[in-house]
Amino acid sequence: MISKDTDIEDIVNDYPELVRPLKDYEIACIMCGEPAWGTLEEIAKLKNIQNLDEIVDTMNKIIKKGNK
Questions:
Q1: What average pLDDT does range 9-33 have in this prediction?
Q2: Does 38 reside within a domain?
Q3: For the chain, what is the domain count?
Protein backbone atom coordinates (compact mmCIF):
# COMPACT_ATOMS: atom_id res chain seq x y z
CA MET A 1 0.00 0.00 0.00
CA ILE A 2 1.08 3.55 -0.59
CA SER A 3 0.66 6.77 1.34
CA LYS A 4 1.37 10.45 0.81
CA ASP A 5 4.85 9.82 2.17
CA THR A 6 5.70 7.12 -0.38
CA ASP A 7 8.53 8.01 -2.75
CA ILE A 8 7.54 8.15 -6.42
CA GLU A 9 10.55 5.99 -7.27
CA ASP A 10 9.32 3.28 -4.85
CA ILE A 11 5.84 3.39 -6.36
CA VAL A 12 7.22 2.91 -9.87
CA ASN A 13 9.52 0.08 -8.78
CA ASP A 14 7.01 -1.73 -6.55
CA TYR A 15 3.77 -1.04 -8.43
CA PRO A 16 4.43 -0.59 -12.16
CA GLU A 17 0.67 -0.69 -12.75
CA LEU A 18 0.54 2.79 -11.19
CA VAL A 19 2.76 4.43 -13.83
CA ARG A 20 -0.29 5.24 -15.98
CA PRO A 21 -2.37 6.64 -13.08
CA LEU A 22 0.59 8.81 -12.03
CA LYS A 23 0.53 10.31 -15.52
CA ASP A 24 -3.27 10.57 -15.64
CA TYR A 25 -3.31 12.45 -12.33
CA GLU A 26 -0.51 14.69 -13.64
CA ILE A 27 1.77 13.73 -10.77
CA ALA A 28 4.60 12.33 -12.87
CA CYS A 29 4.97 11.19 -16.44
CA ILE A 30 7.55 8.44 -16.11
CA MET A 31 6.89 7.39 -19.71
CA CYS A 32 7.80 10.93 -20.86
CA GLY A 33 11.11 10.84 -19.02
CA GLU A 34 10.00 13.38 -16.41
CA PRO A 35 12.15 13.04 -13.30
CA ALA A 36 10.09 11.98 -10.31
CA TRP A 37 12.11 12.43 -7.16
CA GLY A 38 10.36 12.91 -3.86
CA THR A 39 7.18 11.75 -2.22
CA LEU A 40 3.67 11.88 -3.58
CA GLU A 41 2.92 14.74 -1.20
CA GLU A 42 5.98 16.75 -2.23
CA ILE A 43 5.18 16.42 -5.94
CA ALA A 44 1.49 17.20 -5.35
CA LYS A 45 2.43 20.40 -3.53
CA LEU A 46 4.80 21.42 -6.34
CA LYS A 47 2.06 20.86 -8.91
CA ASN A 48 -0.72 22.35 -6.75
CA ILE A 49 -2.68 19.08 -6.73
CA GLN A 50 -5.44 19.40 -4.12
CA ASN A 51 -7.10 15.96 -4.11
CA LEU A 52 -4.14 13.84 -3.03
CA ASP A 53 -6.13 11.80 -0.49
CA GLU A 54 -8.53 10.75 -3.24
CA ILE A 55 -5.63 9.90 -5.56
CA VAL A 56 -3.90 7.77 -2.91
CA ASP A 57 -7.18 5.92 -2.19
CA THR A 58 -7.73 5.23 -5.89
CA MET A 59 -4.18 4.01 -6.41
CA ASN A 60 -4.44 1.70 -3.38
CA LYS A 61 -7.66 0.26 -4.86
CA ILE A 62 -5.75 -0.45 -8.07
CA ILE A 63 -3.09 -2.26 -6.06
CA LYS A 64 -5.69 -4.32 -4.15
CA LYS A 65 -7.49 -5.20 -7.36
CA GLY A 66 -4.24 -6.45 -8.89
CA ASN A 67 -3.46 -8.61 -5.85
CA LYS A 68 -6.69 -10.61 -6.08
A1: 87
A2: yes
A3: 1
Q: How far apart are the C-alpha atoms of 38 and 10, rounded to whole Å?
A: 10
Q: Please give the Cα distance from 5 to 65 (Å, whole number).
A: 22
**Does 55 map to a domain?**
yes
Q: Is 22 exposed, middle or buried (0-12, 13-18, 19+ CB in 10 A)?
A: buried
Report pLDDT digits (tens) over 33-56. Answer: 667 788 999 999 999 999 999 999
Q: Does residue 57 sit within a domain?
A: yes
Output the pLDDT for position 37. 82
d(C-alpha 49, C-alpha 15), whole Å: 21
Domain containing 31 equals 8-66
- Whether 2 is in a domain gets the answer no
